[in-house]
Structure to design on (463 residues):
């Protein structure tokens, strides 16, 4: 089968395009190809700043089989390293922990600073001799992975080939600059994860579209009708959907969550939900935002990591604990309602005669925009 | 503490992953070897004391690094 000609049917306008062919969802070799050309070659989300809140916090993360280490250093900066010792390649940190001084390799105790510098090579020149002319500490720092933190999501570009994050995403960062204010994770009730038996891309595709809302989320229908939604699509960049009728959650006293400071009128009833390609899904509303990192496990399985953020901290405003918990519960219901469709689309892609599907020219622009971007990344990878 | 007691204490501290105690005990072991004018063995133990001090961010790391550097056994580190 000629894969290249089949992508050309994706790389056309939505009215006549097909979706990505089945192998992009069910074939392990294509998954490996996408791992390199789509996920490692671009800015992918791998975690959240809130997972390493304090100086010295270190958390190992497996990203598509690649062992990475998230660290918060003494300057409060987040760094991402390959979690592999420069000596014999031992895994350095195998569980989340607080590093008080240095990262010590459990094998021969080479030690690294929180900035990845090699600080000690015990007995490298023989017992009790901790230096050697041929072992230059400054050549042997941990391998740093390019990273950028935006809206508390830790993005990495594993292969180093992407443009700077702020350049790649400048238009989106500009679009949402009003939300560039301090955000606070809502605490324990505000994070959850869903294991879905689906390729990671189907979660992106479903998130981008409003077409399914009245069918899959009938509960949203009362306040969020189809015609109150608009498509968001920027070719080669991002896509999603917006609503004109966002309504704040209220508790029994009519109390609402505090707004982010300084928002313009547009956001009074407006909200936007955007896929930051490849694997991060963000939502902004006047009183909370959320971030979803899709962890691709293999071609058939994905973990959705969902975290909610507010304008005030949990510690400072315990009076909103109830609203934060019900807000999280409301979103959890919505995301759980989506599980059967992403899993069902995954099953459907084992139908060997499926041609990638035909889009609604009006409703599916954001989904097609994502396919177009993925196909473009794959083509770039194939042609080098 | 004789050498057997020290060895037992070291094994216990390793088992309990008590880094500060490891720093203290390895320093004692080094000093015992220094008194016996066995510099290589002393540096071996000083190295261990230093590594555990460095790992847990104990202030002793600075002095231990200095002691090893004075003996030509390690690069001076900036702390
Ligand atoms: S493998 Fe890490 S110190 Fe040897
Ligand atoms: Fe949905």
């Amino acid at each position: 089968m000629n894969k290249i000609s089949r992508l050309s049917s994706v790389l056309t306008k939505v009215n006549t395009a097909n979706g990505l062919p089945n192998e992009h969802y069910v074939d392990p070799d294509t998954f490996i190809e996408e791992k390199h050309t789509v996920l490692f070659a671009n800015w992918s989300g791998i975690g959240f700043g809130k997972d390493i809140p304090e100086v010295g916090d270190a958390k190992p993360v497996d990203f598509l089989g690649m062992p990475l280490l998230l660290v918060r250093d003494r300057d409060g900066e987040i760094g991402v390293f390959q979690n592999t010792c420069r000596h014999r390649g031992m895994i350095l940190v195998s569980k989340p922990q607080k590093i008080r001084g240095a990262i010590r390799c459990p094998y021969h105790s080479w030690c690294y600073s929180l900035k990845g510098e090699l600080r000690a090579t015990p007995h490298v020149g023989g017992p009790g001799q901790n230096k050697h002319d041929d072992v230059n500490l400054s050549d042997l720092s941990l391998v740093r992975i390019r990273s950028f933190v935006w809206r508390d999501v830790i993005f990495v570009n594993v292969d180093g080939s992407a443009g700077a994050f702020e350049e790649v995403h400048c238009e989106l960062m500009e679009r949402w600059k009003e939300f560039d204010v301090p955000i606070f994770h809502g605490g324990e009730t505000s994070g959850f994860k869903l294991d879905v038996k689906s390729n990671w891309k189907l979660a992106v595709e479903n998130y981008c579209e409003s077409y399914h809302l009245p069918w899959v989320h009938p509960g949203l229908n009362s306040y969020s009708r189809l015609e109150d939604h608009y498509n968001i699509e920027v070719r080669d960049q991002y896509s999603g959907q917006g609503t004109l009728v966002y309504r704040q959650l209220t508790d029994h006293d009519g109390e609402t969550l505090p707004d982010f400071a300084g928002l313009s009128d547009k956001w009074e009833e407006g909200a936007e939900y955007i896929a930051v390609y490849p694997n991060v899904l963000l939502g902004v509303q006047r009183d909370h935002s959320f971030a979803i990192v899709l962890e691709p496990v293999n071609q058939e399985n994905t973990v959705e990591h969902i975290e909610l953020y507010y304008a005030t901290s949990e510690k400072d405003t315990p009076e909103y604990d109830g609203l934060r918990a019900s807000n999280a519960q409301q979103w959890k219901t919505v995301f759980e309602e989506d599980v059967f469709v992403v899993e069902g689309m995954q099953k459907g892609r084992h139908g060997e005669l499926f041609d990638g599907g035909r889009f609604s020219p009006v409703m599916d622009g954001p989904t097609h925009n994502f396919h177009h971007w993925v196909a473009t990344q794959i083509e770039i990878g194939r042609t080098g | 503490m004789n050498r057997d007691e020290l060895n037992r204490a070291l094994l216990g501290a390793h088992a309990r992953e008590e880094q500060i105690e490891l720093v203290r005990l390895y320093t004692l072991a080094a000093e015992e070897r220094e008194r016996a004018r066995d510099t290589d063995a002393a540096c071996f133990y000083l190295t261990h004391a230093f590594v555990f001090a460095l790992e847990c961010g104990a202030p002793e790391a600075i002095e231990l690094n200095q002691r090893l550097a004075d003996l030509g056994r390690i690069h001076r580190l900036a702390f």
Q: What stands out?
A: Helices of chain B lie at 3-15, 19-35, 39-56, 60-70. Residues A 206, 212, 216-217, 338 surround fe (ii) ion (ligand 2) (CB under 6 Å). The interface with chain A takes residues 39-44, 46-48, 50-51, 53-58, 61, 68, 73-75, 77 of chain B (CB under 8 Å). Residues 3-70 of chain B form one domain.
